[in-house]
Amino acid sequence: MTVEGDLVLVHMDGDPAFFARIEAITQDVKPEWFQVKMLVLQVPLLIITWILREPYINGEEFTMGGRPIKMIQVVSPEENPEERPLEQPIEAVKTKKSASKAPKGQKVVSLEDRRKK
């Protein structure tokens, strides 16, 4: 079930069109209809309000102006423990970044030396 704060992918004419975050779902004046306020995640940001029935909010296809539309809730994929990067202590990461030595077999070229004088 899609609720406020969920991320949805809106399909139009069978193709993915845009992502949106559900900002609010409120009862409409018509029985069994809801006003769904969404933040469309594009540049520039856009806020839209659609009046939909509950099945449409939960992924059932509907039409708007004759165009088929479907809202599918986006669920973050589970992180696979085998693919997770090895955790390192923060100090080890800082030491690696601050090390000025190049890995063996690679040459460090100074951009300062290449700059025209």
Tell me the structural class: mainly beta
Our measurement of the CA-to-CA distance between the termini, rounded to an integer number of angstroms, reads 65 Å
Overall shape: elongated
Unreliable residue stretches: none
Order of helices and strands: EEEEHEEHH
What percentage of residues falls in helices of 4 or more residues? Answer: 10-25%
Approximately how much beta-strand content do the residues carry? 35-45%
What's the story with the biggest beta sheet?
A: 6 strands, antiparallel
The largest sheet has its strands arranged as: 4-3-2-1-6-5
What is the rounded Rg? 25 Å
Alpha plus pi helix count: 3
Number of strands: 6
Mean pLDDT: 85
Descriptive overview:
The chain has 117 residues and is mainly beta. It has a domain at 7-73. The radius of gyration is 25 Å and the shape is elongated. The chain has a six-stranded antiparallel sheet with strand order 4-3-2-1-6-5. The mean pLDDT is 85. Helices cover 15% and strands 38% of the residues. The chain has three helices and six strands. Strand 2 (15-27) and strand 3 (33-40) form a beta hairpin. The termini are far apart.
Give the helices and strands, then pairings.
Elements: E1 7-12, E2 15-27, E3 33-40, E4 46-53, H1 54-57, E5 62-64, E6 67-73, H2 90-98, H3 111-114
Antiparallel strand pairs: 1-2, 1-6, 2-3, 3-4, 5-6
Keywords:
117 residues; mainly beta; six-stranded antiparallel sheet; 15% helix
Outline of this structure?
This protein is mostly beta strands and 117 residues long. The chain contains three helices and six strands; from the N terminus they run E-E-E-E-H-E-E-H-H. The protein has helices at residues 54-57, 90-98, 111-114, and strands at 7-12, 15-27, 33-40, 46-53, 62-64, 67-73.
